Amino acid sequence: MTPEMVDQDAARLRHRLAQQISDEGNVRSPQWRDAVENVPRHEFVPEFFTRVEAEAGPTLWDPVDPQRSGVRRWLELAYTDSSHVTQLDGHIAPSDVASAVNGTPTSSSTLPSLVVQMWEDLDVRDGDRVLEVGTGTGYSTALGCYRLGDENITSIEVDPTVAAKARQALDRVGYHPHLVAGDGLNGVPGGAPYDRIIATCGLRNVPPAWIAQAHPGTVILVTLSGWLGGTGLAKLTVTGAGAAEGRFLPGYVSFMPARAHASQPAIIPVLANGVPSRSTAFGPDVISSYGPAQMVAQLAVPSAQYLQLFADDGTPEHLVVQDDDSYAVFTGGPGDWSVRQGGPEQLWDKVERALARWHTSGEPGLETFRITVTPDHQVIDVADWTGVLPT
């Protein structure tokens, strides 16, 4: 295909994508619809990985680029409403491999419908100064530049290699925001105060630096997540010095964790012999399924991790562990779970108490949880129970 043909095909595919996410209700304003129609996503994903579907074995990722996959297939994939992994294990790019490889995704281009939905939820106004945490490929940054102007967008990316590629892509399409390579948890003081702050990574708490670089009325949009899988897109408004409050928005939103907030490899404690097991109304299925119960469990034991291992005969083994050697081990199945605990803390006792209060309160949805940030603590109120975010 000639460059002119690529441009024509890309324009057609952008229109199709904009129509799709508009029909689905993710675009609610003409300004953001125009952004999707005009920002060329393919320039930000010149190469990426697609997941190889397999019934068993490790997850494999297949490299995609115009040369190996063909220009048409690459363009079609670039303009699907899908997330595309662009880096594995913190350093592996698609161009580094000859065929499908195993690895853990560490950078991606988020599905456009979610990107635009978040920009819509941020409620930007003309002239607003925005801090974006997690530049990634730069596609979301470009949408912000189209809507608000380069001079109003500051974006920070923790990975210098990823940041450099984003800068090149933004330069190619004519956008020149203030880009910084660094730890987004510290914000970017030079661009403060910000009217809006948006994060495209998962965090265990709201960084105090963000609030310090805001002003009363600043809106912060961040995915609060943790080590048991609980996650929710939180919308907060800064209310004063070091303070903010808000709620979770409806719907499931999950991002890769900020590298400083990612869990460390879990250490499986020595399981004591002779510890009796008991029945429990809440088993590990509570924390393996997205929903408010998962978030409540996570708030009860915010430093714990969930592991699913497999015995030699293929039988799954479920553990919740903490780095102080506290643990809960489960046997049985849905409706018939038993738990055995050990270590300094009775982890599952805490989870059961929190879930029982949530259940007694009518099992309120995630969007009813109230988030409060002060200089001293960060808490989430669930009906008459309060969970503390780790800081």
From TrEMBL:
Q: Name one GO molecular function term.
A: methyltransferase activity
Main subcellular localisation: cytoplasm
Q: What is its EC number?
A: 2.1.1.77
Q: Which InterPro entries match?
A: Methyltr_grasp (IPR026448), PCMT (IPR000682), SAM-dependent_MTases_sf (IPR029063)
CDD domains, sorted: AdoMet_MTases
Write down the Pfam families for this protein, in alphabetical order.
Answer: PCMT
Q: Which UniProt keywords apply?
A: Cytoplasm, Methyltransferase, S-adenosyl-L-methionine, Transferase
Top enzyme class? transferase
Where it sits in the cell: the answer is: Cytoplasm
Keyword Membrane (UniProt)? no
Q: Which PANTHER family match?
A: PROTEIN-L-ISOASPARTATE O-METHYLTRANSFERASE (PTHR11579), PROTEIN-L-ISOASPARTATE(D-ASPARTATE) O-METHYLTRANSFERASE (PTHR11579:SF0)
Family annotation (NCBIfam families): methyltr_grsp
Protein name, per record: Protein-L-isoaspartate O-methyltransferase
According to its UniProt entry, this protein's organism is: Kribbella orskensis
